[in-house]
Structures are given as C-alpha cells and as structure tokens.
Amino acid sequence: ITEAKSMLISILARFLGALTSLYMILCAIRVFMSWAPGLQLGKLDYYLTRIVDPYLSIFSRMTLFRTRQFDFSPIIALAVLSVANNLFSTLALTGRLTLGFVASLILGAAWSAVSFVLSFLTACVLIRIVVYLLKFNSVHPVWMVVDSIINPVLFQINRLIYRGRV
User: For the purposes of burial, counting CB atoms within 10 Å of the CB of 162, is it exposed (0-12), middle (13-18) or buried (19 or more)?
Assistant: First the structure.
C-alpha cells in the first residue's frame, strides 16, 4: 500500500509541477505582452488575460512591490510559482518534503528576486554613467525613462548617506 501511495503522490506531484511550469510560461508571456501595449493576439490575448490576470493581480495589489514608476510584482508572482514548481519536483522525486528544504527554496526565490532587481538597477546606473561620460544626447526620452528608474533609488541612497546633515 505505501508503494502505491508513494507512486500516486509522485504522479500527482509531476502533474502539478507540469501545470505550474505551464502557468509560469503563460504568466511570463502576459508580462511581456503588457510591455508592448500595441501587441494584441485576438482571442488568445483574451483567454490569456482571463487565465493569468487574477493570479498576477494578487501581487500587484501589494504596494510593497510597486514604486511610482514600476511594478515589480510579476517578479514576485513568478518567484512564488518557481518555489511551488520546485516543491512539486522534489516531492515527485523523493516523496517527501522537509521544512528546511521548503525554507531554502523560499529564501532562494527571495534572493533571486532581490538580485534581479539590484542587477537591473545597477545596469541602469552603469548605462546612464556611460551615456553621460560619452556625452550622448542625455535628454532623449529613453534616458528620461532610465532616469525615472534610478532617481528614486539614488535619492534613497543619498538620504541614507547624508542622514541628519543639513
């Protein structure tokens, strides 16, 4: 009986892992489509929106993951799906989960999200410095968008460094 139970758990975990992987792909497609508002895929767009937006909206309602200019909530939504996918994969292979493993998956996903945002911001700052040093057109709309990304972060860093000084 335990062999049959273990096999059933493994099959169910593999199925749920495959569904989670597919849903992650659909979420990523939806996020990329939101970056190109002119991109419409007809009925596919309609169904994709109906399937994915309820999940993504759970995270977009959390103000912790949004700034005035950007919404980082899709990164967190995909990280949660990644943790679930890893849990299902591990459950399918081993048949059991430990609290330590679950905690390590959650910490790993959190670090991946944070490191992605930090890498993105670092790349924006480095690109902006290069543009400034090469004296390219720094009032081009592209650079204004880059400035709108990095200025709030630089303001917070400046505030931390010069805290309490007039």
Answer: exposed
Query: Exposure pattern of 90-129 as b/e (b: 16+ CB <10 Å)?
Result: bbbeeeeeeeeeeeebeeebeeebeeeeeeeeeebeeebe
What is the rounded CA–CA span in Å between residue 107 and residue 19? Answer: 23
- The C-alpha angle 85, 39, 82, rounded to 5 degrees, equals 10
User: Is residue 154 classed exposed, middle or buried when 0-12, 13-18 and 19+ CB atoms within 10 A define those classes?
Assistant: middle
pLDDT in tens, the chain (166 residues): 578 888 888 899 999 999 999 999 999 988 888 777 666 677 888 898 899 999 999 998 887 777 666 778 888 899 899 989 988 988 888 877 888 888 988 898 888 888 887 888 888 888 888 888 888 777 777 777 788 778 877 887 788 888 877 5
**pTM reported for the whole predicted model:** 0.69
